[in-house]
Amino acid sequence: MKEFYKIFTKLIIVLLVVFIADRLFGGLIQKIYFNQKEISQYFKITYSIEKMDAPIVIFGSSRAYHHYISNEFQKEFNMPSYNVGRGGNFMFYQEALLKSILKRYTPDIIILDILPNEFSDKGNIDYDRLSVLLPYYKKHPEIRSIVNLKSPFEKYKSYSETYRFNSLLLPSISGWLDIHKRSQRDTLQGFLPLHGSLKMELKENKSTQPDILDTNKVNAFKTFITLCKQKGIEVYVFISPSYSLNEETNTTVKFASDFTRNAGYYFQSYLEDTTFLNNNSLFKDQLHLNIDGAELYTKKVIQIIKSHRAAKQ
Length: 313
What we know:
CATH class: Alpha Beta
Number of domains: 1
């Protein structure tokens, strides 16, 4: 019995040391993470979730980030605009961001840019990317059900302060110290221009495999549109240009088009727009417009919104 108490006492001490170390180390990373320079990628996430209050908000992945010039929307509609687009983060991230934003305020106009295969089943890759939301898990209960899609154990692992920040340690330190010397105010309101032109010829990008949809991604899109509808927000869903011959009638495009229009919102795909397909000088690479392409595309989107709003008056 005496031996048992010794083992038990040692176990308690070890657990206590682990607990204290987790709180101290996790607290340090947390402090670094939430004190990023304004230009850093993680500052933008925190700002989008907790502070951004623009009436016009642009959602999406890297194609939203590089294709929609926030300042142009602001000038045209005389309302502040912000681009919350983030590379490598798709429909789950957009749903989480929207839920956090709607807890604080209701935008007037939302633009959502999706990929041609946004809802496709790609295995675990898009679920693993939910790690970027872990720093907000404790403070923002509205996103927990989304982050929990990553694994059945996220709600337990997230009790650890270190776990929620461990994969972000090095980039957080980089952003905190401004190692790359890029610290400056974000004067483009979330938009990042790309420079340089694509030299390759137009290629076909039509898959021979059936486009199998991921139910969770489909539900994330449905929730996004439904929440906007409940709040009376104007929504415009776009698939912006790519420099490739995509399958215009694939399952994602058809579902997104049908669901958006049935909700009474505007949907437009630019996958077959010859203005872009006939001009590789408008692209940085196959998936992304350069600054010249972004300027042209932004003007087209602005005109669509203006015409749509005028028709409703």
